[in-house]
Amino acid sequence: MSDFIIPKGRDFEFTIKVIEADSFIAQDLTNVVGIPTLKLATKLVPDVAVVTVNLSVVDAVNGILTGTILAATTSTLEYSRGPIEDRYYLKPLYIGVVEVDPGDVPIVITTIEDVYVTPTGV
Amino acid sequence: MAKTNSTEVFIAEIVADLDVTTQYNNLMKASVAKDSIYIRAKESLQSFFASSNMSDPDKAAILSNMLTSMTTSITNQAMSTALAIAKENREGKYAISKVIADILVTKEQADKLAADNLVATANASKISQDTTNAIIQGWKLQSDMVRENGITAFPSLTSAALPVTNVGDRGLKWEQEQQTKMSVYATMAKSYRESGLVSWTVDSATNKINSIIDLLPATPGLTHAQTKVAIRQELGFDDNKRQHAANSSANMIGLLLSAEESGNITAADVDLWRSAVGYLNTASIGA
C-alpha cells in the first residue's frame, strides 16, 4: 500500500480499494448501503474526526472507492517534519478510518494508520 | 514426427557486472526513511531524553553509541543485502531459464517414456506374432521331417539322439538315396557293357586314377568292338577303292578285246589291273 499523503492547501482526489476481511479478494460493493465515508483524526485524539469525506463507488465488483478532500479542508490540516540531519522527513500526524456497508456482509471498517500532510507552498 | 535431436543452439552472452551501488542506495534510503526503525528509535530516545533528568553528556554518550551501532549495522547489512540482490538480479534470470529448460527436458523425457511404452506394446505384439510364427515353423519342421527324412512323430522325440524306431525307409531323402544307388548300378552296368571288366590304380600322392587295366581281354565290351568295326570300315573303304580300280581296268581290257583292238592294250594297263586285284587278294585277307 502506498503512503497516504495529502497536499496541504490543494484538492486531493484519491482512490481506496476495499478487500474482504482476512483476505486479499476485493469486496463486492454492488449492494452497498448508505454512503461510504473517510474520516480523519489526529493521532493524539483519534476519537474526534477533524475531516469527514463522502466516498463514491466507481468499480463495485473490484471494491474501488473514490473521494476528494477539497483545498479549503486540506489547508486546515497540520504537518510536521524531522530535523535537517534526517532530511526533514514527514511525520504522520493523522489516522484515517474508512467505513462502508456492503449490504450483504457486516460493515467494513478499515484504518489508514499513517496519514501524512505535505506542504505545497500554498 | 517425433524429434530425433535437439534444435537448441547455445549462444554465448556477455554478462554485465554486478550493480551493487543502486541496490545499496535504495536500501540505505529505506533504512533511514520516515517510517524506518532508525527514525523510530531516534524519536523514542529523544522523547525519553525530554522527560528525563539525565545530563547532556550522558544523553550525548547514549545517542552517539546508539547512532554508531545502528549506522554500522545498517550499513553492513545494506551492503551484504545489496550484493545478494544484485547477484540474484544478474543470475536469477539464468537460474529461472535453467529451471524452464529442465522442465522442458522433463517433458521431453515424459514424451520419450510414452514413446517407449508404445514401442514396448508393439514389441509385445511382435513377440506374440513371433510365437505364432515359431509354432508354424515347428509344423513345417515336423512336416519336413516326415516328408523329406521319413521321421515319424511316434514314439515321441524326447531326447537329442534320434531314436532308431522313428527312422523309416520312406521320405524324399530316402527315395533320393535309392535313386542314387540305382544310378550307381546303372553306371557300373553301362561301364561294363561299354568297357568290359576293368580295374584301376590310384596315385597315393595325387589321389587320382593313374592307370586302367583291362582284366578280361576276351570280353572287351562295346567300345572295343566298335573300335574293331571302325578299323574294319577303314579297310573296307580302301578295298572298295581298289575294287573300283580293278573293275574299271578289267572292263577296259574286256572292251578292247571284244572290239578286236588287242593291239592297243599295253603291259602297263595289265599291270594296273594285276596290282589292284593282287592288293585285294592279299591286304584284305591279311586284315
Tell me the CATH architecture of chain A: Sandwich
Give the helices and strands of chain A as they follow along the chain. EEEEEEHEEEE
- Overall shape of chain B: rod-shaped
Low-confidence stretches of chain A: none
Give the helix level of chain A as a range of percent: under 10%
On the 0 to 100 scale, the average pLDDT of chain B is 88
Largest sheet of chain B, in brief, is: 2 strands, antiparallel
Q: What distance lies between the first and last C-alpha atoms of chain B, to the nearest angstrom?
A: 97 Å
Beta-strand share of residues of chain B: under 5%
Order of helices and strands of chain B: HHHHEEHH
By DSSP, the count of extended strands of chain B is: 2
Oligomeric state of the chains?
heterodimer
Largest sheet properties of chain A: 5 strands, mixed
Which chains have the largest interface?
A-B, 8 and 6 residues
With strands numbered from the N-terminus, the spatial order across the biggest sheet of chain B is: 1-2
**Uncertain segments of chain B:** none
At the fold tier of CATH, the topology name of chain A is: Immunoglobulin-like
Count of DSSP strands of chain A: 10
Radius of gyration of chain A, in angstroms, nearest whole number: 15 Å
Gap between N and C termini of chain A = 27 Å
Map the helices and strands.
The complex is a heterodimer of chains A (122) and B (287).
Chain A: E1 4-7, E2 12-17, E3 33-42, E4 49-54, E5 56-59, E6 64-69, H1 71-74, E7 80-81, E8 90-91, E9 94-101, E10 108-118
Parallel strand pairs in A: 1-10
Antiparallel strand pairs in A: 2-6, 3-4, 3-9, 5-6, 7-8, 9-10
Chain B: H1 20-31, H2 37-50, H3 56-147, H4 172-195, E1 198-202, E2 209-214, H5 222-258, H6 267-286
Antiparallel strand pairs in B: 1-2
Write up this protein.
The complex is a heterodimer of chains A (122) and B (287). In chain A, 3% of the residues lie in helices and 48% in strands. Chain A has 122 residues and is mainly beta. Chain A has one domain: Sandwich (Immunoglobulin-like), CATH 2.60.40. The longest helix of chain A has 4 residues, at 71-74. Chain A is elongated and about 50 Å long. The model of chain A has no long low-confidence stretch (mean pLDDT 93). Chain B has 287 residues and is mainly alpha-helical. Helices cover 69% and strands 4% of the residues of chain B. Chain B has a two-stranded antiparallel ribbon with strand order 1-2. In chain B, a hairpin with a 6-residue loop joins strand 1 (198-202) and strand 2 (209-214). In chain B, helix 1 (20-31) packs across helix 3, helix 2 (37-50) packs antiparallel against helix 3 (56-147) and helix 5 (222-258) packs antiparallel against helix 6. The mean pLDDT of chain B is 88. Chain A binds chain B through residues 82, 86-87, 89-92, 114, and chain B through 32-35, 39, 42.
